[in-house]
Amino acid sequence: MRTLFTLVLCTFLLAACSQPTSSPPPSTGSQPPVSPPVPETDIPLDLLPTKETPVVTLPTLEPGTTKQPPSDELVLPFDPKPEDAMLERSTIHLDYVGLLILESYPVQINLELQGYLPTPCHNMRVSILPPDQENRINIEVYSVVDPAMMCIQVIKEFETFVPLGSFSTGHYTVYINGELAGEFDS
Q1: Rounded Cα distance, 30 and 75, in Å
Q2: What is the pLDDT of residues 10-25, one digit of tens each?
């Protein structure tokens, strides 16, 4: 009996979700076609994090060196920017942090981040420090927002991949906002 009920319910749901097979009635010409409403948003689409990650090759970092990007290096949307000094810094909630070790030579390391921002007006920033003498890589993940901006009060989920690059031979530990995120060998 339960199986029959489930089968009838699934059939009903599939029928309700399917599109009608008949063609729409012919237009009389008196009314223009109605287009579906477009939701309004104040968020520029280029600021929203995506699941697509640009392919970036970063230089090999030696312990104790500082990261000085060459002038032709790709700037990622979550890199800290000079204009961030005018914005308010805020926390970010991370649900998942993972290290991805790409099978390449030299080995490339990516950081996978999933979580949410307090509002759609917050922009994620990721600050990566080069490895110290103990091969510890410290990463700060935070958000910035213009406090004068009016914004809808809903959280904004994200999933993104941050390329960390390749490293000289050794054992490395990665800390995000002061907490151990993972380890890898290069």
Answers
A1: 53
A2: 565 555 555 555 555 5
